Amino acid sequence: MKVLVISGFLGAGKTTFIKMLAQRTHRDFAIMENEYGEVDVDSKILQQDESTKKLNIWELTEGCICCSMKSDFAASVLTIANTIDPEFLIVEPTGVGLLSKVLENLAKIQYEKIILLSPVTILDGHSFDRYLKEFPEIYQDQIAAAGTVLVSKEESASPEELAVLESKIRKINPTARLHTEHYSRLKDDWWQQLLKQGLKGKLPPGADADSDLQNLGLSDISFKTADQLILFLNGVVSGVFGSICRAKGFMQAGAGWLRFDVADRTYSITGCEMMEQSRAVFIGSSLERSLLREALQKNLHR
């Protein structure tokens, strides 16, 4: 079983990349999701998508596999190797996890049946400067420990802007395979090669970094109309509910179900299939927990 770690800060687009990886390679995958939050959202999205819904998806919540959950993480990886035994295990750590620590934990259980591949970090180029300033330990570690760094959300950037961004990334990791062009434009051969690149050399050193981010997970949430969801998300990005750097979820709004995603003070809304239970997670600092609960659960029992 070959293990590929897909790292990246909150909202960088790791889950989107994993879906495209499945589409472009058509290989035998199992996926391990490590949510930073009290409820799991990403695995439900993967289970709904046509490209990944048939894959084995393992969920690890309420802890970070780079530190507090490392024993459970190791046991889960060994269980997958010894039971499902997929060709590849894709590990998506929480967005605030230290990539170097995840690799160290995996290296401890590596043997002839478990092989580590060169890790990938997805980087939101639009938010690079802000996140590097606000979360330097985590952000630099995720870049420095990566074998491949892919820039997302910069499709409209000029060549000059991309050159400046590349220079900044190279100061943190001068040897990574770096692509400022969006990965969706890369050829099929590149995607296949990604699954053949082993982890070479010594693991990069990683310092422990305690995140001061808070998280709130909510279930059984709804809005009476889509317009109410839009008003709510405007409040989220404007700071009404605290300094929220990442939020995502799905819920019923009126007659249909909607999925929302918040990253870097912007939000998007798309339709989705009916789920067994509505869920949302909010990650940030100084969260207004009571206001969030009131806004999202006010329609219960009415």
How would you describe the overall organization of this protein?
- The chain has helices at residues 14-25, 42-48, 70-83, 99-107, 128-134, 136-144, 159-172, 188-194, 226-237, 289-297, and strands at 2-8, 29-34, 56-60, 88-92, 115-116, 120-124, 148-152, 177-179, 214-219, 222-223, 243-253, 256-263, 266-272, 279-285.
- It is an alpha/beta fold and 302 residues long.
- Helix 2 links the parallel strand 2 and strand 3 (56-60).
- Helix 5 (128-134) crosses helix 6 (136-144).
- It starts with a strand and ends in a 5-residue tail after the last helix.
- Residues 201-210 have low confidence and may be disordered.
Quick summary of this structure?
It is built from 10 helices and 14 strands. The chain has helices spanning 14-25, 42-48, 70-83, 99-107, 128-134, 136-144, 159-172, 188-194, 226-237, 289-297, and strands spanning 2-8, 29-34, 56-60, 88-92, 115-116, 120-124, 148-152, 177-179, 214-219, 222-223, 243-253, 256-263, 266-272, 279-285.
